[in-house]
Amino acid sequence: MDQRMIAGYTPVAPAARMDNHGPSIARVALRTGQDLYARTGSMIGYEGFIQYEANPSGLGRAAAGRLSGENVPLMRCHGDGLLYLADYGAHVVCLELADDNLSVNAANVLAFDAHLQWGVQRVKGVAKFAGQGLFNLGISGTGWVAVTSRGMPVVVDCAQAGETCVDPDALVAWSTGLRVEGKRSFKASSLIGRGSGEAFQLAFSGQGFVVVQPSEDSTERLTQPQQQ
Predict the structure, then answer these.
(1) 161 contact partners, CB below 8 Å, separation of at least 6
(2) Is 21 helix (H, G, I), strand (E, B) or coil?
(3) Interval 145-189: pLDDT, tens
(4) What's the pTM?
């Protein structure tokens, strides 16, 4: 085979613990003792010796997510090698946390380092605007997180951009150090959001970033669900 035909697709040496191979694949360098939690069914390939444990012990917190609609089916990955993860062709964003706190829509969680702290969180101060609570997966500590986006996302640095308003259905993740306020827009109700009546947005400000996807239905799958 002419090697020039595959030159643009062969992987190169990873630059970090977690990085991208193209826009839709996360590549994780696993080492012994550096386990990873990944969305069940997201493994598309691996090099070396890697093992998987579905529904591992200690994931009782995921069950609590069912009460809030934020169930995250996870598997524990461990071993020594390169692991490739994807989710129905969605774009993947790899984020390195440095003693940070991140709030992620559970539908957009692809993988995170097993040593990070995590659990289902209720986003405070939103219910009185949205008419209901908003629950996310909170991940904190120092390590790597991979999230997905239905299309090329935009990552906004609120410290530079100032107040940033986002449609909740397009929201992927944000730094929990940001101030979050709910806002209603009467005049723009026919232009913003998919629902009828008043349009509702979340306004972020302060030090941190917000990840927004070009889709207003974060729970919709790109294709039919795969069989487990």
Answers:
(1) none
(2) coil
(3) 999 999 999 999 998 988 999 888 889 999 989 998 888 765 554
(4) 0.80
| 15-212 CATH choice from 3.40.50.1980, 3.60.160.10, 3.30.70.660, 1.10.260.40 | 3.60.160.10
Where do the structural domains in the chain lie, given as residue ranges?
Answer: 15-212
pLDDT digit string, tens, across residues 73-97 = 889 999 999 999 999 999 999 999 9
CA distances from 94 to 91, 149, 215, 223 (A): 10, 11, 19, 22
CA dihedral (170, 105, 157, 16) positive or negative: negative
Q: What is the three-class DSSP state of 195?
A: coil
Q: What are the residues facing 36 on neighbouring strands?
A: 77, 113
